[in-house]
Amino acid sequence: METASDYGAFMEKFILPPTSSSPDLPLSSLTFAVKDIFDVKGYVAGFGNPDWLRTHEIATSTAPTVLAILSAGATCVGKTVMDEMAYSINGENIHYGTPRNPCAEDRVPGGSSSGSAVAVGANLVDFSLGTDTGGSVRVPASYCGIFGFRPSHGAISKSGVVPMAQSFDTVGWFARDPKILSRVGHVLLPSPQQAAPVRPTQIIIAEDCFQLSSIPYDVVPQIVIKAIQKLYGVDVLRHEILGEYVKAKVQSLKSFMIEENTDQVYNIPSLAALSSAMRLLQRYEFKNNHGEWINAVKPDIGPGISERVSDALTTKGEGIDICHSIIKELHEALTSLLGDFGVLMIPTVPGPPPKLQTNSSELEIFRARAFSLLSVVGVSGFCQVAPECVCEKLKTPISSLFVYDFLSQYFAGKHSTRVV
Question: φ, ψ for residue 311 (rounded to 5)?
């Protein structure tokens, strides 16, 4: 139940104090919240659904990621609302209510880590933890005007986190301040030694991806170019038609290109095919993870998500091997494109957050365009910074470069990552 002060962000409020009160700890005096998908000792990870909450046991231990944050000096103040079973990027929950977008109250907050993003955007906590499978950190970060970080796939333990689809699941986090975003990163993604900040070797603007955005194409690149010139000079700047590059380099996409994707409006055919492959494997893994429970319990699931769950339950194994080949080929292709410390500039989402209760046909068009962009990182397994960008603010390109500057010290460490 939403109160006047919490924007509907919280499922449950409680206090988990840090394991040490030393003021020298990296996250000392900071507060955070966790998505209702993480195990917290003494509570049930509710997975956004009352029937899941009712039929699952209280956690006997806390997820290692949460413990790491507590050990670094931060205080946890509660669990946040999420989309049911992490199966939406919209942020609306029919059972627990939709957290209010603090930047645009007539628009959705984005999901599935909706409450975690709203808690940060509304200044209720300093940072929060979420998960990102298809875009569930990046989308609400963009919609709520804050920073969100999806790390490279496998870089952070997912132990104690309810799985959605393991090939894409990651643990991510939100912050209003890029310095705090970086501080959390240094806790969750520790480098073996203090490394010097890294200058990007190239910054590639994906021109065709920006054409998917509702923000005028002739405006956004100029902001990017000015930011690059200010920070790094113009020598690092490159342009790329990403869809054509992916089509040429990811040969296993051909079987998905044959489908309806080539005729979809507002889509880049190869990236639409990439999205189709991602969603097929996501459905297949979701069914393997939760199909038995769904068939046994027959949970009450809200509109939109219930249709996706039904589709997942009927998914067969055909094409799954091709999906794994696509993952491998795309990772290799982008590694080759970016080289060491390259940055690929793409929009996080194709436009402002949809209005609350937008009709389903409009939402599906928006989702198709969004997943064409989101699948680039989701499938490749690279990391992505989703900078503050809500409604008509044109802050995305500039902010992402500054976030890169703050995080580049980490990227120079032991983890092989790319900023996208």
Answer: -60, -40
DSSP 95-138: TT-PPP-SS-TTB---SSSHHHHHHHHTTSSSEEEEEESSSTTH
Residue 106, phi then psi, degrees to nearest 5: -90, 5
Known catalytic membership, residue 191: no
- Single pTM value for the model: 0.91
- Residue in 112, 114, 275, 276 annotated catalytic: 112
Model pLDDT for residues 367-418, shown as the tens digit of each residue: 889 999 999 999 999 999 887 543 333 333 333 433 443 344 344 333 333 4
DSSP secondary structure of 64-104: HHHHHHHHTT-EEEEEE---GGG--SS---TTT-PPP-SS-
Count Cβ neighbours within 10 Å for each residue of 206-229 and write b for 16 or more, e otherwise.
bbbbbbbbebeeeebbeebeebbe
* Sheet hosting strand 75-80, strand order edge to edge: 10-16, 75-80, 31-35, 127-132, 170-175, 147-150, 384-386
Q: Which residues of the chain have pLDDT under 70?
A: 1-4, 191-197, 217-221, 258-266, 388-420
Indicate if 325 belongs to the active site. no
From the list 88, 114, 116, 136, the catalytic residue is 136
What is the model's pLDDT at position 391?
37
| Rounded Cα gap, residues 53 and 221, in angstroms | 46
Whose tokens are 């919240």? That residue is 33
Known active-site residue 136: yes
Question: How far apart are the C-alpha atoms of 141 and 137, rounded to whole Å?
Answer: 6
Q: Exactly one of 35, 79, 158, 287 is catalytic; which is it?
A: 35
Q: Give me the pLDDT at residue 4, please.
A: 54
C-alpha 346/C-alpha 179 separation (Å) is 22
Rounded Cα–Cα distance for residues 179 and 185 (Å): 10
The packing angle between helices 269-297 and 305-313, to 10°, is: 90
